[in-house]
Task: inverse folding
């Protein structure tokens, strides 16, 4: 794998989409697919699909298309989807609990194995047998015990930086981040923002300017 | 306003960020700001900030910076944030109800004024005084009565296309879309996808390849 080339985030996102499309084709028994066919599903140019795949070496042969199962396996390995990940949730509010209850993630190998909240009324509550909401000062110990690699932060903006710092200090290397606040990202942490407010504002822009 | 130029989505997203940064500066009593200062906050080149703003005409003067209040008002008008929007939610599951309960949106002028669900056990339940969950066949009438412009779809993948089509038929022009399924977007509809699974997969990629 070429690891010195900076691969655009948009390409990674498309690889995820290709992976899921291939998974559904495999279920339907489809054996080969062309870059043109993949491209059509997502309204892309076939060149774009080939370019996205080329970041990770040569797949398939010109004119023969790709083997669905093999390409899916390779993309899965690139995306780290051939294994499972242990996740902790910081913030047991509405968004946090929605993430916790969303079964799709588990099917994809993303397991929420710990939940933390700073509210003493919440800490101690049990979400299901064996899954108690823990207080924030238990983050370090639990992250280490349960070998947690990814954190989901769904706390109010004013608590966001402390949550990031606690996870980083405990050794978590990747964070999915819901608060809208600006933060300093500790070195070596991959942080992905979800900003639902910005998504709504994009729609308000579209309605205002169409 | 130039309306023939196609403005990149990424620029619109940055304008939203600038708007919120200006709002917090205004609260702090700051009167002027340079493109360089805005750029620093977001790790951008000052040129990028000037370019994003230039899509909508000239703001401020070279060397003097921007007037915070004026620039904020202009960005607010561009983004449609100088008014409020009526929103309906389709799908009263975990993600849907998290969106419903998220108070930040209301403060920004995004009001969820109706909630629909196909589950007859949910339809009829009351979320708060005056806000009953309605059945799907009430979408058209309610969208018209309450002058709803934006729909949030948080239904299972297999119900997603029907929900899009119902909202479009009722006259909704903008949709925030949570299901991971592929869909046909009716003409004239602005649709913005939120795919939390892809965001987690981006982190799994980052962990696998760093």
Result:
């Amino acid at each position: 794998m070429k690891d010195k080339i900076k691969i655009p985030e948009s390409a990674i996102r498309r690889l995820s989409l290709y992976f899921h499309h291939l998974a559904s084709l495999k279920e339907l028994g489809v054996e080969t697919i062309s870059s043109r066919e993949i491209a059509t599903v997502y309204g892309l140019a076939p060149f774009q699909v080939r370019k996205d795949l080329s970041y990770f070496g040569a797949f398939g042969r010109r004119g023969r298309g790709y083997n669905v199962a093999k390409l899916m396996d390779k993309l899965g390995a690139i995306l780290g989807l051939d294994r499972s990940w242990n996740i902790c949730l910081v913030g047991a509010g509405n968004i946090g609990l929605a993430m916790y209850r969303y079964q799709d993630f588990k099917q994809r190998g993303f397991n929420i194995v710990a939940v933390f909240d700073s509210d003493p009324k919440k800490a101690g509550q049990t979400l299901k047998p064996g899954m108690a909401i823990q207080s924030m000062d238990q983050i370090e110990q639990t992250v280490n015990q349960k070998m947690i690699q990814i954190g989901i932060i769904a706390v109010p903006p004013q608590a966001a930086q402390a949550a990031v710092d606690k996870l980083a200090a405990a050794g978590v290397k990747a964070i999915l981040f819901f608060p809208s606040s600006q933060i300093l990202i500790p070195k070596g942490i991959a942080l992905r923002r979800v900003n639902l407010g910005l998504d709504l504002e994009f729609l308000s822009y579209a309605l205002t300017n169409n």
Observations:
- Chain B has a mean pLDDT of 89.
